[in-house]
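batch job 7 of whatever, protein = SCNNG protein
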Amino acid sequence: TARIKRTLPVKGPQAPTLSELMRWYCLNTNTHGCRRIVVSRGRLRRFIWILLTLSAVGLILWQCAELLMNYYSASVSVTVQFQKLPFPAVTICNINPYKYSSMKDYLSELDKETKKALETFYGFSEGKSKVRRSVDEGNSTGSDFFKQIPLLKFEDFSKTATDLRSGQKRKIEGSVFHKDSSIVNSGDSNDIIGFQLCDANNSSECALYTFSSGVNAIQEWYKLHYMNIMAQIPLETKEKLSYSADDLLLTCFFDGLSCDKRHFTRFHHPLHGNCYTFNSGENGTILSTSTGGSEYGLQVVLYIDEADYNPFLVTSTGAKIIVHDQNEYPFIEDIGTEIETAAATSIGMHFTRSRKLSKPYSDCTETGADIPVENLYNKSYSLQICLHSCFQKAMVDSCGCAQYAQPLPAGAEYCNYKKNPNWMYCYYRLHEKFVKEQLGCQQICKDACSFKEWALTTSIAQWPSTVSEDWMLRVLSWDKGQKINKKLNKTDLANLMVFYKDLNERFISENPANTLVILLSNFGGQLGLWMSCSVVCVIEIVEVFFIDSLSIVMRRQWQKAKKWWNDRKRDRSGKPPEASDLERQGHDNPVCIDEDLPTFNTALRLPLPQDNPLPRTPPPNYSTLRLETAFTEQLPDTLEVGQH
């Protein structure tokens, strides 16, 4: 029995070769195209069926890939609700961060250098005697740092520059970074203003920062030294040097009711001084409004005090405001809205809440906990917070100190030229990498999945009007506590109104475009359309093309390895091959371990031995078929019949 089993030809999943397995699959599969390839007569017809089957398989793969990609897409839905809305936080800052009269003692030397630069380069002077006296005072107090980083005047885009202090020309080396190449001077001169920053540890490493506009060059140079000075002043002192709530706020109304400075929360911004946030929610209460319109929002009159502005730090007059959520940090320097003086600025709002799907639909973050950047602002996560925190961390790691305009990391100090003489060169180099997205912050930081947004619509009107200017300014001066003969000027005032245009809350959300049930249904439709195939067919394909094919390959490799090992052992021992080895050759299939006896039809297909043919049954001897009689002679009565 075992010998017969080993010599039986095996078909189906137990076929010994891949070609026999594929032929068996095509004859027995439930898909139509594969069977037609085998049973079709003629090469042309078989070729056509092969082409059609391969085309159907290609279409199935393409459509299924499209379905998979669409599965990770999202549809956007917009829901509008009419309800009572919470009023946002409104942060207001004076464009001028500190009173110039209070800052003169700290900025006197810097202002002298700036005035001298204006006189040297542009012939601007407030009076020769006054400028000369200021320069002499500056020389007496010492200004070594201004000697190291002076303003330079470059001629005809060359690297020959005129020094501000000495007036001498010298050759400047270093890489040139043109900060505002889009600005072109209107004059005939091609002179460019800029300054040079060098590495304190390596004087040959320098960078030239040039500006085609002298206004931008002087302001950038002034801010550079201004941050050095402000970084050395304690926070308590800076809060006293800036504007108080009584200085900034003249009148206040919300939702038709009077309000005062108790409804505002102060926080100190490095670049804008003391700012005040209305409805900050720090006391646990958030105001809301049930009616839209300008009369039911926030109305404030601000005292700007233009006469006490720093002439070199800011060149515009007014205030900056930003509308934000109570848990968000107000980035006034990035997205703040400026309001004019002598004008009534009305800001209408539309409130929108947005919600995005996280992975795998988008690359957003829920809370920022998965972002490897420390939040330095102690507010809810946002992309801006992540970018600023990432840059500040890189600043501390690379330069050894923190940039003045951003919060301090734990254990760090703000940069200043006394403790960190190399920080300016390091900061500009680092900022250049940040802008070019070479620092890695843009790759690490992600958008927040949920956020609130107030869309603003701004309109401006003249305020106060010409006919009401006299009495309004007189009354406001009285409210301010000033004398009547020193009434306020309208250029010192700004009227601001912030309100909801309507109470429609818009909720924008993303939903999965496809669910798992829809995806499986689409797969089934594609398989049935192109191949008349079902889930059973898919399981059949997986079984034949992966499991059975792999088992055949592994079995063949095992047989080869076993034969090689037996041959090796036989060669070493010198024994002749055993009969059992010869019997296993050919159609030997060790998988046939069942005990069923072969049938008659399968037994007839057994191969005959070539060397020793088995004896066959001899042909019958037809002479034995003759009848033998018991009589020796024929009877007379039969003779006549036989002859007849």
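notes: Residues 100-123+145-231 form one domain.
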